[in-house]
Amino acid sequence: MEVRLERINKRFGAVQILKDIDLVFPSRKFVTLLGPSGCGKTTLLRMIAGLEDITAGKIWFGERVVNELAPRDRNIAMVFQSYALYPQMTVRRNLGYGLRVRGTPVSEIDTAVERVARILEIDHLLERKPAQLSGGQRQRVALGRAMVRKPDIFLMDEPLSNLDAKLRVTMRGELRRFHLDLNATTIYVTHDQLEAMTMSDLIAVMHHGVVQQYGTPAEIYSKPANLFVAGFIGSPPMNFLEGEISNRRFLVGDGSLPLPALQVEANAQKAVLGVRPQDLSRAPAAGQDTITGTISLVELLGSEKLVEVQLQNRKRMSIQLRADAFVEMGALFHLRFDPQRLHLFDKESGNIIPASN
Amino acid sequence: MRRLHALLSSDRAVGLLFIAPFVVTAIVFMVYPVVEAIRMAFYSYNPLRPDLSAFVGIANFEFLFSDPLFWDSLWQATVWTLLSILFQTILGVGIAMLLHRALFGMAFFRGLLLFPYIVPTVVIALIWRWIFNPEIGVVNYSLLASGIIREPVYWLSTPTMAMASTIMLNVWKYTPFVVICVLARLQTVPLELYDAAKVDGAGFIRRFIDVTLPQLREVLIVVIVFRTIWTFNKFEEIYLLTKGGPGTSTFNLAVYSFEQSMASLRLGVGAATGVVMMIMLLIGSIVYLRITKFGEEVR
Amino acid sequence: MLTRKQLWRAARDALLYVSLCTVTFIVCFPLIWALSTSLKPKSEIFATPPTLVPRTLTFENYEALLTGRQQYYHSGPQTAPSGPTPAQFFTRWFVNSVIVTAGSTLISIVISTLAAYSLTRFRYWGRSVVPYFSLLGYMVPSIIFVFPLFLMMVRLELTDSLWSLIFGYVSITLPFCMWLMWAFMRSIPIEIEEAALIDGASRYQVFRQVVLPTALPGIIAASIFAMIVSWNDYLFGRVFINSLDNLTLTVGVMLFFEGTHVDWGLLMAASVLMTVPMAILFMALQRHLVAGFGAGAVKG
């Protein structure tokens, strides 16, 4: 089922949490709300669930406005950050609770619970209480509880954040598989960009209660709409240099770099240049498209080496090299910029200055 | 001076030095009186003639068990306790649920509702005698004026009503205790549990039964057991309001023990009653430890 | 514009406030009524219909208590009292109550704070049983040991003195002060003290400069409970004291009933004055009181 948000606003007293959110979650897609803590993503999710009032705007489920519907009438399921399993009930009763409350016959509940338990491989845990389960098992029960009712919309609020790093990677794949099996629209909230990039069909990057960019993971990575998205997405984070656009070149400190053709040519405009560490390379000698600095830090990441280069204006740039690259602390380093892989942002607004294709 | 300093810098010495006052005080003012109370239960003891004190074996207990008033007191204490606890628990949970709302002015209500707990029992008893006075009390006046009753109710001078009045006093004074305990626990119930129940489709009543009550289970057990133990042995709440009367209709074991010691000067019998109370207390404590599986969830 | 949901919620909140106000009124009514009675002149106390807000405000009852002036019915010579009247002793009893409450609280707090520190920071035999033993002690009702304690006071020749009450109240307040302080001390992380020890502070300095300030909320909570218990006690005062001069408020005020006439105005004024110190304490330190309840250490 398609979920559509129309000019959604949320205020707590004088504080504006969400501002004019317009989003469409296409049917059966996996959409992630991504942003730092406090950006309003969880509030938005809770509004979709019906757990939070809507200050202004409309939420559509298909052709229906659900603003006034209680959570129970929305045919949604939700996985909570803390899992929120009922501590006094066994796994079996936890899984079946939603059906029991709705007066489903016992035999049907049993079949549904056992089916889900088999899929999630927790059928041997059915008689245990949540306190006797490990973190990963609780996570599965929470998922199972959401799956039992065959919801139209599947809501997840940072479901992996309480797991250890290794389990988180495994669960990422599993969640994605469950999504494909379930055939429901999934709305997923996280602050972890890696989760968002690996699992989603679409990502809405949020900051300060506003959607900064909405698009596929690839779009968001390669064409960030503004400085915030550029800085938030990608690891290690993008390098930024402040400077000025002048005659299709970017003036920074005592050097300058070539720029691609811009859609709207600008001159003497204050701008920020962004470049990902992966998009920088090493030049054998100084040239037209290089800036020189000294190596101030080297980190071996395993398959790569992360090198930090300090420029003359004391600004530090990081560059990702192959692990076998020869680098020496304190040595001179010529950074080469590829004009096609630069991102230019307006210094005032932070918005992208698009290049012409 | 230097020696003192050396002593203070030695860890072990400091530890023992700090605990010593407690040990001494506890032995003199806590352990000794209780041991003495048990010893006295096997002696005849008249405070006016201490020289005539003598070991009497279990004579005091025989006296006790053959005294119908003792059994009446035991029964009345049981009724008193059970009804008090019942009302305290129901009202306490109810009021706590009311207070557990993030509404404007809650702190104000909270403060006022906890107030009775700190009011001296003497004061409550006095006020009770005043407002429940059959002829000039405001309670009877209001009930008569509103037509709920036709005759004045003799709150403190008929056995049933006297019992009811002491229960009311007890409930009035100690419900705040239940409220505070339940409220503290309510505040730790994860909100996500309620959200999960809402998404699962549970209405208000089901959420209370399936989320709130199970979370309150432990604290209610603790509160009920503790309150039962204390209520059963209460003295002032009854004595100051009715002196155990009219007649002996509101006697409990504490009042019985007090009257035996103070009015009849049978300190041995009073002490024997105390021993019976201690045994009941012990049973209560064992029940408590059993229920909470000692140590598993030490609060 | 209000949606149905908002209307429903407003109605629910209104209902909530109404029920809260009702409950609060019922709970506070006895106290309000006592205050009202104490401020009425004799004639109005027995008026029908009774008035909640006094028509004529008078402080004569309070004046009588605080100045010790004899204030009796002026209806006839037969009511003139012969001996001393309880009102004359009121200020004296008040001072007595303050002395025994302060004394016993101070002793209990000092002893229990030191002991709790020792129990949570040093290792020796029996350190883990002491708090539970203490908890057990605080469940024993005072009616059981009041007479043995009295006989002990007789032997120490302390009967009929404020000292006997101070010691008596220590015996009822110490166990739960101990339990509360122990629970509190246990929750203070030991690392701060270790840091101070490494920085070169002596045990004594650590205790005074690091432990005491951190333990202050616990000390306040324990003090409030100790004060409430001592101030409100009736039993010990009744058994230990037999001269009018040394009575505490609770026992003394009960003597107001001894005469043929009960002066309700005076009695209610006395009740109000007895409640005021605890009320002030309660309002000033309510936050800590709740914290103390939370620690599970309440005598009641």
Largest interface, with counts of residues having CB < 8 Å to the other chain, equals:
B-C, 84 and 87 residues
Q: Averaging pLDDT over every residue of chain C, what do you get?
A: 82
Whole-number radius of gyration of chain A? 25 Å
CATH superfamily of the largest domain in chain A: P-loop containing nucleotide triphosphate hydrolases
Indicate the overall shape of chain A.
elongated
Strand content of chain A: 25-35%
**CATH architecture label of the largest domain in chain C:** Orthogonal Bundle
Count of the domains of chain C: 2
Query: How would a textbook summarize the main sheet of chain C?
Result: none
Query: Could you say what the CATH architecture of the largest domain in chain A is?
Result: 3-Layer(aba) Sandwich
- CATH superfamily assignment of the largest domain in chain C? MetI-like
Query: How many helical elements of chain C?
Result: 13
CATH fold naming of the largest domain in chain C: MetI-like fold
Give the uncertain stretches of chain A in residue-range form: none
The radius of gyration of chain C is 25 Å
Written description of the protein model:
The complex is a heterotrimer of chains A (357), B (299) and C (300). By secondary structure, chain A is α+β, with helices and mostly antiparallel strands. Chain A has 2 domains: 3-231, Rossmann fold (3-Layer(aba) Sandwich), CATH 3.40.50.300; 236-346, OB fold (Dihydrolipoamide Acetyltransferase, E2P) (Beta Barrel), CATH 2.40.50. Helices cover 24% and strands 35% of the residues of chain A. Chain A is built from 8 helices and 20 strands. In chain A, strands 6-7-8-3-9-10 form a 6-stranded mixed β-sheet, sandwiched between helices. A 5-stranded antiparallel β-sheet of chain A has the order 13-12-11-14-20. In chain A, strand 12 and strand 13 form a beta hairpin. The longest helix of chain A is centred in the middle third of the chain and has 18 residues, at 165-182. Chain A is elongated and about 75 Å long. Chain B has 299 residues and is mainly α. Chain B has one domain: MetI-like fold. Chain B has 13 helices and 2 strands, in the order H-H-E-E-H-H-H-H-H-H-H-H-H-H-H. Chain B has helices at residues 2-9, 11-40, 59-65, 68-99, 106-114, 121-131, 138-145, 159-186, 191-200, 204-232, 236-242, 253-262, 267-292; strands at 43-44, 54-55. Chain B has a two-stranded antiparallel sheet with strand order 1-2. Residues 295-299 of chain B have low confidence and may be disordered. Chain C is mainly alpha-helical. The longest helix of chain C has 36 residues, at 86-121. Chain C folds into 2 domains: 4-79; 88-294, MetI-like (MetI-like fold, Orthogonal Bundle), CATH 1.10.3720.
